[in-house]
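> tool_call: predict_assembly(chains=two)
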Amino acid sequence: MPLLQIENLRKSFRTSSTLGGSGARLVAVNDVSFTLEQGETLGLVGESGCGKSTTGKLIMQLQKADQGRVLFNDTDLTTLSARQMRPFRRQIQMIFQDPFSSLNPRMTVSSILSEPLIIHKLVPARQIRDRVIELLEKVGLTAEHEQRYSHEFSGGQRQRIGIARALAVEPQLIIADEPVSALDLSVQAQILNLLQELQQQHNLSYLFIAHDLAVIEHVSDRIAVMYLGNIVELTDAETLYKNPRHPYTEALLNAVPVADPDHPRPAPLSGEIPSPVNPPSGCYFHPRCPYADQLCREHSPPLTDSGDKHLVACHHSEQVGQYLIRRR
Amino acid sequence: MFTTQRSFLRDIVWQRLRHNRMALAGGVIVLTMFLMAATASLIDADPAAIDISQRLLPPSWQHPLGTDDLGRGVLVRMLYGARISLLVGFLAVGISSIIGIVLGSLAGYYGRWVDALIMRFVDIMLCFPTFFLILAVIAFLEPSIWNIMIVIGLTSWMGVARLVRAEFLSLRQRDFVLAAQALGASDLRLIFRHILPNALSPVLVSATLGVAGAILTESALSFLGIGVQPPTPSWGNMLITGKQTLGSAWWLSVFPGLAILITVLGYNLLGEGVRDALDPRLKE
């Protein structure tokens, strides 16, 4: 039994017109299914606006899904009331992208970290302070940081506080929504290493959302590639990098910069990511796809297992790879 | 370099306020008004003691601002009037701020029909010309200082409600609020610990400016004879007493009039200073 099982998740937003009438529907997450095992890291990668952050919020029940199920240890979270959801909030936690907006500017570090302990009554009142210091030390900060406000810290330190806050309730699953993309490169590595250490210590599972393939390769066991609200490819990390079967994955891999002036330059993807309010017919990727033909323009390919649990949503997956530039 | 910093409010805002001369002048005026109100209790003089032999005397050493048509000292009455103005100003703004914060929070936090209902009510309230609404209400009630404060408070909360609602709408989607929600924080905890403390800066500004408005409204009502009733002195009803004798005894109206002018100016300057100091977009 997987720890987390997502089935046919869908979320759309109404774009309201100025007169308050209902406007068009923006489909942020179209039809997303995947599973996540205990102790595993699943990377979720895609361009901005493809619905990867919304997927994270739907799992956390910070937004209500239109359709679909979120099974956590076989309990469907989408059917729970706020009160019933509360015990599950101890087991799933979230790390946010922007460390400058994820901490309350009017609270000290100690009150930020003691809040989860108080909400879930995890430790007796006089042990709260010890636990806060323990959490700070666990993420590489010290007790002397306890009484400071978040604006007194650097981006990397703030992200450590955000991680400590998520750890406070001892969760099983952490949804990391682009946890390093707002940080300097050197700090990124520190935070990624910290997340991996914590995973080993606590047998954590991560849903690791990112737009950077270099980051996600470093941490993931399996990777799901999202495009315009759909998962287009899902397989283990090594296979995805060596043998991509979806043309979008191929294009993303070609776009990863290589520090070699003689490295062949990839042909950039033509066109922009289409508007999710008015998506193209058939396969959503066909206007930008070098393999597209009439079939792709008319019929949307389902996400199917092409062998070895390698899921691909493409009519021509067996051809994909001919434009891939091998990394030396 | 980080150890000396404590909080945004105490350091940055205070630094900016100190370097804004107009705001400082406003602050001095406001402080002076508090001193005047405090002096009224200290000095041993009855603002209502009538002495017909001393009526309509020009400013002198014994009566620094002259006497009125019943022989009462204008200065003494103005000191007492400062207390009335302060009381009306702060209590009226207190009432309107509380109503505005509560309704604005509800509308901004719960959204949907709660928001629609409250905001349409705000629109309806804004349709009434406030001053005539107050006149109409006072016509039914006994014109006392308490009624005036309550009525001013009840007719001036709409701006605050809109401000607070707007702050809630933007803060509701901020990551730190989502993080608290993800931790299982209750609605009350989200509102009172996370959103409201971060939404109060614009309320503080609007309250400071609101005090000036309330003082002005009270003066106008008293001037029309339906505000604070004689013999209780207020700057507004002192103005009207002086109106008949404006040609012969100018000190009766000029001093209370100047007091109103300067006080309202002071609160406005201070309010604008606080607004600039709290604006995170302004750099040093």
